[in-house]
Amino acid sequence: GTGHKEIEDITDYMYFNMHEDYVYFTLNDKFYRSDHDLKNRKEIVGTLIHNALFVDDYIYYTTANYNSVQDVYYPTQLNVVKNDGSENKLIEKGAFYLDGATDKYLVVTNATNGYTLLVDRDTLESEVRLYVPYEQVTVSSDGKYLILNNIEESQSLKAYNIETRKTEVLFKNGAKLPIEYDGMVYFYNSSDDNKIYRVPIDASGEAELFYRYSCSTELTLQILDNYLYFFNNDDGGAVYRINMDTNTHEYIEFVRKMLD
What we know:
Elements: E1 16-19, E2 22-27, E3 30-34, E4 42-45, E5 49-55, E6 58-67, E7 72-82, E8 89-93, E9 96-101, E10 105-110, E11 115-120, E12 126-131, E13 135-139, E14 145-150, E15 157-161, E16 167-171, E17 175-181, E18 184-189, E19 195-200, E20 208-211, E21 215-216, E22 222-224, E23 227-232, E24 238-243, E25 249-253
Antiparallel strand pairs: 1-2, 2-3, 3-4, 5-6, 6-7, 7-8, 9-10, 10-11, 11-12, 13-14, 14-15, 15-16, 17-18, 18-19, 19-20, 21-23, 22-23, 23-24, 24-25
């Protein structure tokens, strides 16, 4: 045996993720990988982790600490390790969110002071780029932009060009849960009954209506195999998807939401 208790319920794991050939999880305050059947367990990091981002052969991760007063775990420092458990290194201490990565940079935001940092993936040197205390930060698929969505009252949508260091306003008010695909940012417009809009990430054009029916923001916009998935409120909460090439939509399955 492994000397560890066997886990029957996946909710017993604080962190659990499948990536390529392995399952990664925390157990007994350590971070492991195993085969998909949870056999051949290997310790990656001998501490509890808060979150992880898998990029090539490396895992960027934040360690976790427990706040007994608030009964929550929070990130305490930023680290990197190879996916076989070697080359474990500290990048920087602090409570960081893992926003994403480009070919050159790891993008993180300090949860305490609201600064977004770009960490050189070769040298591990960090540079403060943005002050975004109320923004949700994501990285575009081509690695050229940071998408900034204000989660406070304005719900503005902006794009920061990593190379030019310029920020463009894409949508002033009401953008929620944006997702980027092929140079376009798709989002729910809360000022127009949560219909789906889209706008070019390079600000070369105005935002336009993409799907004219009301949607539920309880489901984050998801793109899989060239389809955009969402809940359609105008059809009782049915799951729909849009073909991103033809812009045609189709019903997937009915989901009736149970409301109090």
